[in-house]
Amino acid sequence: WSARTGRSRPVLITCTDEATQAGAVCARILEHYEAGVGLRAQAVLFRTGYHSDLLELELAVRRIPFVKYGGLRFLEAAHVKDLLCVLRLVENPADELAWFRVLQLLEGVGPAVARRVTAQMVERPQVAGSQQLAALLPPAARVEAGQLADALADARLPLLANRPGAQVERVRRWLDPVVRRVRRGAVARLSDLDQLEASAGSAPDLARFLAELTLDPPSSTSELAGRPSRDDDVLTLSTIHSAKGGEWDVVHVLALADGSVPSDMATGAVEDIEEERRLLYVAMTRARDHLYAYFPLRFHQSRRGRGDRHGYSQLSRFLSPAVTALMDHRQAGPSMAPDTVDGIDPDVPVREGRGMTSVDAALSRLFE
After folding, report:
1. Contacts of 278 (CB under 8 A, 6+ apart)
2. Could you tell me which residues come within 8 angstroms of residue 366 by beta carbon, excluding any fewer than 6 positions away?
3. What's the pLDDT tens digit per position in 244-289?
4. CB neighbours (10 Å) of residue 334?
5. Which residue in 62, 136, 160, 345 has a CA-CA distance of 20 to 30 Å to 246?
6. Number of CB atoms found within 10 A of residue 94's CB
7. What whole-number distance in Å separates Cα of residue 75 and Cα of residue 62?
8. What are the φ/ψ torsions at residue 20 (nearest 5 degrees)?
9. Element (H or E) spanning 79, and its range?
């Protein structure tokens, strides 16, 4: 139990969706940074590794350095690099590193063949979008190679110029079946690519999108995987499990929707739900001075094609009206109907300055 006098109440931020959540988190991080709180003194916590996917993309765009614990960084995942390499070939058909990686995704193509064909593609980049590409490869790879050439050619059409979201969608028609064939856990991986496609939709053009999410060369990937030195001012991203024992001045807890916290995979028994409650307790007690809890109102079901299918979520069962009454409330994104969020009425002014209630007051209601 903390003996410190609280200086601010916990803040519950209701966001329109996960993309809005990512923007809101970055805004708060930079706000505290400008107020003198270093990145090392801040942390973003989440129940499961993929909950931070869109946030990692937003951090990359804003050039905010971070290290992730309890899961592979989004842009370091193999399937994400696969997609970025194909997109690099759309932008630059003479990209040597991208060709070497993409060619090895084809059936029956190993490093030796990929190296030989890559050399020819660098010398003759005009072949990239034609069926001549298939002729350079073994018979087993020719069908997929022809489909790759078609995808690259279509993505370069004037119709798709300055529409990076549509370009990503086109190359994914080729890549998704390949990911299912060569990568384990394809369902989760394709969901990650949905996140990347959504992010591309807001970019002005493909070149800008790729520049903001620069694919690190192989020589530097081992550096990214290591822990930062004491002198590095980097933000901490961590699963709640990996955050046990840590403390930060400012803590942001993501995705506090029922189904995320508690996880929908851990609601089969009372004991499992109570373990999820203890996990949230761990997350919220990592904060020394400021605690922000984020609740995305919408979770998009699929971002493929032109649709925008989504479902509305409910606030975590652990954040009852008694608990949220002890928190200040914010909204991020367009206004929402008052009845969409349990215990939160957007028409009521933001509740600020109600004394120096500590974080412990909210926690006592949450876990009493």
Report:
1. none
2. 277, 280, 281, 284, 318, 319, 320, 323
3. 889 999 999 999 998 888 887 766 688 888 989 999 999 999 999 9
4. 7
5. 62
6. 14
7. 15
8. -65, -40
9. helix 78-91
Query: Could you give the CA distance from residue 240 to residue 225 in angstroms, rounded to a whole number?
Result: 19
Distances in Å between the Cα of 204 and the Cα atoms of 161, 162, 333 are 10, 6, 21
Q: Note whether 146 and 153 are within 8 A (CB).
A: no
Q: Token pair for residue 35?
A: 């107020």
d(CA 195, CA 92): 23
Residue 2's pLDDT band (boundaries 50, 70, 90)? low
Q: Name the CA radius of gyration of the chain, rounded.
A: 23
Tell me how far apart the 2 most distant CA atoms of the chain are, in Å.
74
Question: Tokens 């008694």 identify what position?
Answer: 322
Helical (H) or strand (E) element with 322: helix 321-324
The C-alpha atoms of residue 40 and residue 227 are separated, in whole angstroms, by 12
**HSE-up (13 A, CA, CB side) for residue 106:** 29
> Measured between alpha carbons, how far is residue 29 from residues 16, 18, 88, 250, 325 in Å?
19, 17, 31, 8, 24
What percent of the chain lies above the pLDDT cut of 90? 45
47, 264 contact by CB (below 8 A): no
Q: What tokens were used for 211?
A: 């520049």
Minimal CA–CA distance to 55: which of 29, 13, 22? 22
Q: Phi and psi (nearest 5°) for 364?
A: -65, -35
Residue type, 41: A
Q: What is the pLDDT of residue 53?
A: 86
In the predicted structure, residue 297 carries a pLDDT above the cut 80? yes
pLDDT of 350 higher than 90:
no
Cβ–Cβ under 8 Å, residues 8 and 290: yes
Residue in the structure block whose two tokens are 């761990």: 282
Peptide bond just before 217 cis, omega within 30 deg: no
Q: Give the model's confidence band at 231: pLDDT under 50 very low, under 70 low, under 90 confident, else very high.
A: low
- Beta partners for 332? 15
Burial grade of 22 (CB within 10 A; 0-12, 13-18, 19 or more): buried
The CA distance from 267 to 305, in Å, is 33
Q: How far is it, in rounded angstroms, from Cα 318 to Cα 94? A: 53
